[in-house]
Each structure stands twice: as C-alpha cells, then as structure tokens.
Amino acid sequence: MLAKKTIIDKINSKEAIIGVIGLGYVGLPLTLRFVEQGFQTRGFDIDQYKVSKVNMGESYISHINKSKITQAILTNRLKATVSFEEIQTVDVIIICVPTPLNKYREPDLSYVINTLNSIIPYLHVGQMISLESTTYPGTVEEEFLPRVANAGFNVGNDVFLVYSPEREDPGNESFCVSNIPKVVGGITQDCREVGIALYNHVSEKIVSVSSTRTAEFTKLLENIYRAVNIGLVNELKIVADSMKLDIWEIIEAASTKPFGFTPFYPGPGLGGHCIPIDPFYLTWKAREFGLHTRFIELAGEINRMMPEWIVIKIMGALNEHGKAMNGSKILVLGIAYKKNIDDMRESPSVEIMQLLLNKGAEVLYSDPYVPVFPRMRNYFFNLQSVTIHQEMLASVDAVVIATDHDAFDYQLIQKHSKLVIDTRGRFRNKFDNIVKC
C-alpha cells in the first residue's frame, strides 16, 4: 500500500517521470501530451534514427508539428534514448510497440516480449507498467504477470500492471490524446487505481473496466466492428458493380436515414496497424476456447481480396481501351494507407503495386507524404514519388487513385488522364475516362 500511495502522490504532484517505449504514431503523441501536462518524460526506442530526431527537436511523422518536439527539448522535459538502463530512472513505463501478425496470420508478440525482457532487469519497487499495444485478451495476465512476479515483485503491491489500449487516429484533427476517452484496466484494483491516477492527467475522460482482459477485448471489439462493416460494404461494392450501380451513391442515400444506419465506405483494402490485424488476434485466442469466429474471418477474407479485385478491374478497364496489362505504364496515386498522412503500415496501395508489377506493368507512384518509398517488412520498390503534371498524366496508360489525398489536383487528373481507376469514390460525376471500383 505504501508503494501505491507513493506513486500516486508522485503522479498527482507531477514529480513522476514518465517513460514511453516506442516513439511511433502512438508513443510520440502520448509522450508530447505528458510533456504538455508538465511531466518529465523519457522516450525509448530501438531505432536510433527516431531517437536522434527527437533529441534534435525534429519530427519524422507528418501530422506532428516539430515545434512541439522542439519546445519539449528546450524545456528539458523530454529526452529520447536507446538505452533501457534508464528505465530505472522512471516511475511509469508505457509500452507502445508494434503487435503485427506472423506469416501464418497469428499474433506476433515478439516486440512486446522483447521489450518486457529488456526492462525487467531495471525494474524497482513503486513503478507502474502500462501496455498500450493492441493484443489478445490475457496478454498482461499471461505474459507480463508471471515475468514480473518471477523477477521478485508482488504485482499490486510492489509493481502495478495496467492495460490501457491506444486509440490514436493519425491525421484526425478532431480527436487526439486529450479528448479521446481512455479505457483503463488493472491486474488488481490497486493497479487500476494507479493507472487511473496517471491517465487522468492526459485524458479528459477515463473509462474504468474490471480487468486487463476486459480492456484488451474492448480494443479488439472497436476495430473488429470496423473491419466487419468494411468487409460488408466491400462485398456490397462488388455486387453493386456487377449490377452497374454506384455504391457511393447508394451509401449516400442510405445515410439519410436518421436512425439504425451508420455509413461505412469501401476501398481498395484495409490498411493501418489496427483494422487489418486486430481481428486475427481474437480469432487466434478464440481457438484456445474451442471457438471458430466465422463471421470475423469471413470479413477478413473479403477485405484481403480487395487489392486483387481492384487489379482485375484495372485489367478490364485497360482491355476496353485496347491495352494489355503487360507493358502498360500505370501511375498509382497515394501509397499511405489513408489520406493526408504518411503512415504506410499495411497499406493496400503497396499490394496493388506489387500485383501490377507481377502482371508485367510498369508502375510509378505519386504521394506528397511519401517522397521516397520506404523499406517495409514485405515490400520494397526502388521508387520515388513523381510530380503530377499534364505531361506526366498523358504519358501513362492508367492512373489508379488508391489513396485520395486532398493535395491531389483531381480536376487536372480527370482532364489529362487517358484512364482513371477511382477506388475511393473521389469522382461523383460521370466521366468517360473514369472507372469507379
């Protein structure tokens, strides 16, 4: 009880030092939010590039203003490091590392476990550990609790374990760390109370739940809800296309119903770190209980096949214009997973590019947020973003709108392109050279 009172007092007086592990799209905004609220923070990452950028007061994420980082550095409230030895200097440890799938579409907790193993030698009585990475129900109980206990700590008395799922939406100007309600669950009631005390300082609303398992399941429900509904509307898009109907017009009409309908929109496939991945964390865990989550897995199958369906539509559109896919020059617009950000994680645009190359097309891309194609786990193209202009558009056989950044000049694109494949419903009016899919 003494350790609990000590850490809560330190948090409430803002004497607690906050350590955030993983300075990506979740960890960096969270770190800056703690700085804004007057806390000393330490950012940890195994990527020396990110650490160096932070310490120089520079941003490597397009929607995060460098001035926030610069101010944090100048006020000496933020320091980034690759050294996990500094874990012993912090009071709160927040883990925001990736939780991808392996090649068998099973949970890959290697980043989480490696992080946990790296910090355990430097733990001390009175610290709190919060996992924010999306994961399956039972991760904190089954992976964190035994490791921390085996290190000699009494969880709930010496060290406090919490799960509080991230709800970051990169590029969303309406919602940020401060005004998104924060779900908090703890291994024990005392753990939960410490977590609530912490997150009360950075979030306007705390949602307390009964356990870490409940909090873990909550995060999965949020994203499975979206994945299933996107799968539904993607399937309906295929049906509407076969009937030569405009799915975007249909959705717009249905959205006028003031109750019982929430619009979801089709696209070329799912992207981002959450929606394409999270459902499979639950389907994997459900098998432990002898359950087969058919509904979730069917939605996943539909969403995964969308890039292939788009490529078939591109092939058909080229054929109608007297061109074969093999040898065609195709410009892909937008390779981030959604518009107006630079986040490439699980982007369906990249899979479309690979499928086009496999079929013999010459592929170019344009994305103002991704000037040079980055190295990714499964894909790499030695390409740089090309500038869109009249001559460029006229020189290619097809333009594919894969991610509809607002920065693109769509009037110019429509006017000077031979063929435009619109996967995002950007063009509402009918044009002879526009194919919606």
Key phrases:
alpha/beta, five-stranded parallel sheet, 437 residues, 14 helices, 2 domains, Rossmann fold, 13 strands, globular, eight-stranded mixed sheet
Structure description:
With 437 residues, this protein is of the alpha/beta class. It has two domains: 2-212, Rossmann fold; 269-436, Rossmann fold. Helices cover 39% and strands 12% of the residues. The strands form two sheets. An eight-stranded mixed sheet has the order 3-2-1-4-5-6-7-8, with helices on both faces. Strand 9, helix 12 and strand 10 (362-366) form a beta-alpha-beta unit. The N and C termini lie far apart (60 Å).
Largest sheet: 8 strands, mixed
Tell me how many strands there are.
13
Secondary structure tally, helices? 14
Topology order in helix (H) and strand (E) letters? HEHEHHEEHEHEEHEHHHHEHEHEHEE
Radius of gyration, whole Å: 24 Å
- Indicate the mean pLDDT: 95
Task: Give me the CATH architecture of the largest domain, please.
Answer: 3-Layer(aba) Sandwich
Helix content: 25-40%
Strand order of the largest sheet: 3-2-1-4-5-6-7-8
What is the CATH topology classification name of the largest domain? Answer: Rossmann fold
The N- to C-terminal Cα distance equals 60 Å
Low-confidence stretches: none
Beta content: 5-15%
Tell me the overall shape. globular
- The number of domains: 2
In short:
The protein has 14 helices and 13 strands.
Q: Secondary-structure blueprint of this entry?
A:
Blueprint: H1 2-12, E1 17-21, H2 27-36, E2 40-44, H3 48-55, H4 66-74, E3 78-81, E4 92-95, H5 110-119, E5 128-131, H6 139-150, E6 160-163, E7 182-186, H7 189-199, E8 206-208, H8 212-242, H9 247-254, H10 278-287, H11 294-320, E9 329-333, H12 348-358, E10 362-366, H13 390-395, E11 398-401, H14 410-416, E12 420-422, E13 434-436
Helix pairs in contact: 1-7, 8-10, 8-11, 11-12
